Amino acid sequence: MNKVWAFDLGASNGRLMVSGFDGNRLFLEEVHRFPNHPVHVTGHYYWDILRTFQEMKAGIGKSIKKGHKSIESLSIDTWGVDFGLLSETGELLGNPYSYRDPHTKESLMELLSVIQKEVLYTRTGVEPAAINTICQLYAIKNNNSSLLERAKTLLLTPNLLSYFFSGVRANEYTISTTTSLFNIQERNWDSDLMERLNLRRDMMADIVMPGTILGPTLYTIQNEFSIGPVKVIAGAGHDTACALAALPIQTENSAFMSCGTWILMGVQVKKPVITEQALEWGFTNEGTADGEYRLLKNIMGMWLIQQCKSAWSKEGRIFTYEEEAQLIRDTASFTSLIDPDDSAFFNPNHMPEQIRNYCIRTGQEAPETPGEFLRCILVSLSLKYRWVLEKLEQLAGKSIETIHMGGGGIQNELFCQFTANATNRTVIAGPVEASAIGNSLTQWIALGKMKDLKEGREIVKNSFPVKVYEPQNQLEWQEAYGHFIKLLTNYNVEETLS
């Protein structure tokens, strides 16, 4: 059976998955997993990209030792917006900044004094935000201009790692649409926009579509592992585009949720939705693996729980997933709610303390026990998804009957059930490794082993299990949603969302 390597890198961990395809079913095996966190040094957050690459190579070594042969290709998907810079000779110019770095704090307001928010949104389809590539570049130009002067090429994170494997410089379509530098009408880098901001268009590597074969692995890679050439494919570079590609969606009346550190919730559309209302509500248009668009909203996800657990572990309190679930079940519902997207939760020093302070500030009973914190987070997240779902229906002009959830977050069954309860929609959860599966699908299609994404999704449906959650306890969840909307309205946090 022929196989491919699917590198799926998130903002908290990375993994190498081996995907096999026998012509009827897909098979997936995790061969290597590693933590992937920004490193805080000299007041900045950086990605240790060379350590990440070393971990990727360690995965290849493990895969070979396990006897995986006939590897045809590899592809890489990651989170959006971040990038690395290469010199004239192709050398990496320092560690890439993380989107959580505070150096962009002032850049958004400065940028919007040059380009109106509405103009920026109309041109790029992306909600203006300080984490976006455009703001990061603008901050570097203003604070570290010598870095840009030395830069020959900008490569987005998955494409930077593909370059390490292949030596080919190219930026892939789905990841490029996250930057707020991509002109959504011209489907290319926005030269006029970059000129107005005094950003260099010449360093933006050309954009290629998902499934483009960049070339074989470098001889140095082949020699290191004593293997023949492996095709390096620019698949869908953005992990959410990969996750959407893998979800077994059957009807247009379905929404998708990619569930990880962030939750990305949206619908697929043939044309971008760049209305005034979409901008006001903080929605973004990003590319899909088949060249269309995802109308979606970025929402805080498992980050809140991850940071609470990190704070508790430093205090010697460590819980298994089963213990967490029991703590939540043993805790009363709806005693406190938060807006998960409040800026206070973006990157605090102590997440539980921030949540307590938010509840006190908004006149609520503050959580005290781990169970109360966890239930507060999961309930609040679920209620936020209903808010987003209602806005999606208005923007897309259609009713949404089903929510397809994929990604690691769906392993939390209470999270899936709460989402069904809060939204009053059927939830179909699975596959768990949606982004890695979508990554492999783009490779099999590029290799000619599958016809298109429609066929790929049918194969996924027959290859991996899903779990269905139906709404429960609608009266109490409806009442809770009323309280949640009052919280958003009374404390004007909807402005914080966007």
Automatic annotation (TrEMBL):
Q: Name one GO cellular component term.
A: cytosol
Q: Which family does it belong to?
A: Belongs to the FGGY kinase family.
Name assigned to this protein:
Rhamnulokinase
The protein's matches in Gene3D superfamilies, at most eight in alphabetical order, are given as: 3.30.420.40
UniProt keyword annotation of Transferase present: yes
Q: Which GO terms describe its biological process?
A: glycerol metabolic process; rhamnose catabolic process
Domain Carbohydrate kinase FGGY C-terminal stretches:
256-446
Give the molecular function GO annotations: ATP binding; glycerol kinase activity; rhamnulokinase activity
Give residue ranges for domain Carbohydrate kinase FGGY N-terminal: 6-244
Q: Which SUPFAM superfamilies match?
A: Actin-like ATPase domain (SSF53067)
